[in-house]
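[stage:ingest] chain + small molecule (coenzyme A)
[stage:ingest] validated
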Amino acid sequence: MPLSLSDGEKNPQVLTFKSTLPSGEEVVFRPIEAVDVKLLTEFLEGLSEQTRDFYILDSYDSAKAQEFCDAINKYDKLRFVAINTSTKKVVALVEYSFDIPEGDTKRFLGYGITLNSKTDCRMGPCIADDYQKKGVGSVLFPHIVDIARKFNKERIILWGGVFEDNKKAITFYSKNGFKKVGSFKGTKDASTLDMMREV
Ligand SMILES: CC(C)(COP(=O)(O)OP(=O)(O)OC[C@H]1O[C@@H](n2cnc3c(N)ncnc32)[C@H](O)[C@@H]1OP(=O)(O)O)[C@@H](O)C(=O)NCCC(=O)NCCS
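[stage:predict] done
[stage:export] tokens:
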């Protein structure tokens, strides 16, 4: 039986994973909870300008953290945090959208790909600056795919694509099975790649 969005709140244990980072630190990767506003605020406020240039939100503050928490079990969004079990700090945020907006559907049709909102989903990761390039994304990646599978998704596309100058992310996605399927002018008119992988 595939999971539904409400399982993030009703049944979080089926969506909770423990992992050890290459540094030896333990993290718990789980759906965000209503009480996570402070933790998420700290995480968002701590993101560097460079990370903000690649992971675009309209603000990086308590209002955005509150918005994420208010969206729990609503709309089509499911957000996960990886929390360091000793410092209790958020080291990663991973967002899923289980609906496919019309713009994405049209753009992918232009590449000859028909998206299906039942079996395709969008995903976007952001690792805290101090934890980037230390294998965190790679450790979380099998869980990222497993979560999509639990929701009966067959393909993952990148939420908003990836900027062509975000070489780190493009290499990361390629290493983790994503293929470039097309390109477009994204946010701030930047050259952006669409990438996709099967679940
Ligand atoms: C992109 C991101 C998710 C990758 O996660 P990460 O934890 O930093 O990546 P990892 O340390 O697991 O690295 C995995 C692979 O990425 C590639 N990579 C890492 N740093 C790199 C760099 N500076 N240049 C090129 N490739 C790089 C490598 O192939 C690496 O594998 P390797 O160490 O075996 O060579 C993370 O860096 C991040 O959140 N960046 C800021 C926000 C962002 O860009 N989000 C994506 C928006 S589309």
